[in-house]
């Protein structure tokens, strides 16, 4: 019934989502749902399942209904007001780990910055994945930082949080050995191409590039790179699907060494830039799959 309801609402993954939402309403995971098929269901559980299905039928993202989304193998809390972590953003973690592995043993604890941290998925993951990393993360949104703090506490990561607008507040705390960012890069004109789940539910400030300029944050980060990055430091920035050629040109015209890395769909998704030639930039190129 749940599945056919979501199917009638035109949802492609009606079966999977129905199972996830009913399991969530019953306070169990999807596997347990099948193991406990005979379990009696209470009236309040039926109400909770109905409520979850109606919300999904109105195109609310599953992650906002269940309150969580997996990122790099860990569950992150998410709520309206904070961007839902995307699988393609995991590519930044892959390259950051590769960079950390290639660092000289005597280089000291890496200082890491995540600009525009949202749920904290990158900051928390890097704090847990890169040994000894001293991670700072910033966001202009107090709502996002609440969720990020909650995630760090829940997952046992230590992160210094910076609430502030733009790069000013983070430049004061630099330089950093590694700067990562998944900034807002969607153009307003592309809003109609977004799924209703994204367009109608996710925070505008996390999605849309300021002043209609999709390259604004890549440009600002590249302009600031020489102050923001320590010598031999690396900048990793997530890019929109048509952004790579412009981002490369921006980096190279500022005298930086740069390349882009494709995601699993073949889209050049991550810009890697640094001030000096460093073999690790090219050697760390991961063409597909996860380097875990
Ligand atoms: C695309 S989301 C990325 C969130 C998270 N890093 C992730 O990958 O899921 C961009 C984030 O940048 C933040 N942001 C937008 N404008 C900002 C600004 N002027 N200063 C700092 N952060 C900003 C948003 O609040 C949002 O959390």
Structure overview:
- The protein has 292 residues and is α/β, with parallel strands linked by helices.
- The protein has 2 domains: 57 residues, no CATH class; 216 residues, Vaccinia Virus protein VP39 (Rossmann fold, 3-Layer(aba) Sandwich).
- The strands form 2 sheets. Strands 5-4-3-6-7-9-8 form a 7-stranded mixed sheet, sandwiched between helices.
- Helix 7 links the parallel strand 3 and strand 4.
- The longest helix is centred in the first third of the chain and has 15 residues.
- The C terminus is likely disordered.
- The site of S-adenosylmethionine has 21 residues, from helix 7, strand 4 and helix 11.
- S-adenosylmethionine binds next to helix 7, strand 4 and helix 11.
């Amino acid at each position: 019934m749940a599945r056919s309801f979501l199917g009638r609402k035109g949802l492609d993954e009606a079966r999977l989502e129905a199972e996830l939402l009913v399991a969530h309403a019953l306070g169990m995971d999807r596997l347990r749902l099948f193991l406990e098929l005979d379990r009696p269901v209470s009236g309040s559980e039926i109400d909770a399942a109905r409520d979850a299905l109606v919300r999904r039928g109105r195109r609310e993202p599953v992650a906002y209904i269940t309150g969580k989304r997996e990122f790099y193998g860990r569950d992150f809390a998410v709520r309206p007001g904070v961007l839902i972590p995307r699988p393609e953003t995991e590519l930044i973690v892959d390259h950051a780990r590769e960079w950390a592995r290639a660092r000289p043993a005597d280089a000291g604890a890496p200082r890491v910055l995540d600009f525009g941290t949202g749920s904290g998925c990158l900051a928390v993951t890097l704090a847990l994945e890169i040994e000894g990393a001293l991670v700072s993360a910033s966001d202009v949104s107090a709502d996002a930082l609440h969720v990020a703090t909650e995630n760090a506490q829940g997952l046992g990561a230590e992160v210094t949080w910076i609430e502030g607008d733009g790069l000013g507040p983070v430049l004061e705390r630099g330089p950093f050995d590694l700067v990562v960012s998944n900034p807002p890069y969607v153009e307003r004109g592309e809003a109609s191409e977004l799924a209703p789940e994204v367009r109608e539910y996710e925070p505008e400030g996390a999605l849309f590039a300021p002043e209609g300029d999709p390259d604004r944050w890549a440009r600002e980060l590249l302009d600031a790179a020489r102050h923001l990055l320590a010598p031999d430091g690396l900048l990793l920035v997530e890019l929109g699907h048509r952004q790579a050629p412009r981002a490369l040109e921006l980096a190279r015209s500022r005298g930086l060494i740069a390349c882009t890395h494709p995601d699993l769909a073949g889209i050049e998704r991550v810009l890697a830039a640094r001030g000096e030639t460093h073999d690790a930039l090219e050697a760390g190129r991961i063409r597909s799959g996860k380097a875990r």
